[in-house]
Amino acid sequence: MKTENILIIGGTGKTGRRVAKNLTQLGHNIRVVGRKTEPAFDWENPDTYGAALKDMDRAYIVYYPDLAVPGSRNAITTLTKKALEAGLEKVVLLSGKGETEAEACEDIVANSGLNYTLVRASWFNQNFSEGAFLDFVLDGVVALPMPEAEIPFVDADDIADVVSKVLIDDSYNGQTITVTGPQKRTFKEVVEIMAEASNKHIQFVPISIDEFKDGMRKAGLPDSYVWLFGYLFQEVLGNPDNQEVSNDVAKVLGRPAKDFETYARQTAATGIWNQVSVE
Ligand SMILES: NC(=O)c1ccc[n+]([C@@H]2O[C@H](COP(=O)([O-])OP(=O)(O)OC[C@H]3O[C@@H](n4cnc5c(N)ncnc54)[C@H](OP(=O)(O)O)[C@@H]3O)[C@@H](O)[C@H]2O)c1
């Protein structure tokens, strides 16, 4: 196997960290970048892109906060141009399943002149243990909108295993891989599964999107985040087409995708859901 120099943008996040671990174990040279790394990489500052891309062969691109936000197109255009100039061979872009706003960025990557694979992910299981919804679980009250939505939650371990494979396997060039879990679950169902796995009282409270957005504003979150969550709840979870389960994880990895029960059991065993919430 050829040893590759692989850049992981967002390499300290939910999927990036796991991709970095996988590819390091396979013997590749990894450069993880984010705002606090050396070299530092900041999506808001294109002057930081060049140092990150220098001497790299391939890159995993995690845009933050989301490809749907204004500003993402310019950033992805600049990054892919610089990647081509720097001599990169291939990129894998993490995108969101059902996010029509993200498709413009997918097109930019597809037309960049680089080899590429697009990985479209459903909502992550790890939002409840490493992301925005952890505090709700710790507080024992998960108040979220869209109670009727059936979401094919996907595990970050599966996304990372798929990304690690398609990033170094050129037979996936030009393909779009849709990664979901093996079943659709409502928020109420996943809350019940987490409660049982952690032996803790956790309640699901259905609220409206406006109530959720008001809560975000009261918590002092910027307007751009409030808009983004409104978009994700309304556009992504509100569209029944986005609730389909995909078989791509099994097709790429030759094993089934992880179900929510397994994620909940493994996560509960770490004790993270039985800690006290830190305000
Ligand atoms: N979470 C989901 O359910 C979900 C579902 C589908 C798709 N996605 C996509 O996954 C991506 C990541 O979302 P996430 O919320 O799960 O985050 P994440 O990957 O867990 O963490 C974000 C990463 O980006 C870095 N980062 C933050 N701000 C940055 C900036 N200005 N410049 C450079 N790096 C920055 C962070 O490191 P530093 O803070 O150290 O800079 C961290 O490594 C988004 O594009 C999202 O659309 C997420």
Automatic annotation (TrEMBL):
SUPFAM superfamilies listed in its UniProt record: NAD(P)-binding Rossmann-fold domains (SSF51735)
Lineage top rank: taxon: Bacteria
Domain NmrA-like: 106-232
Protein name, entry field: NmrA family NAD(P)-binding protein
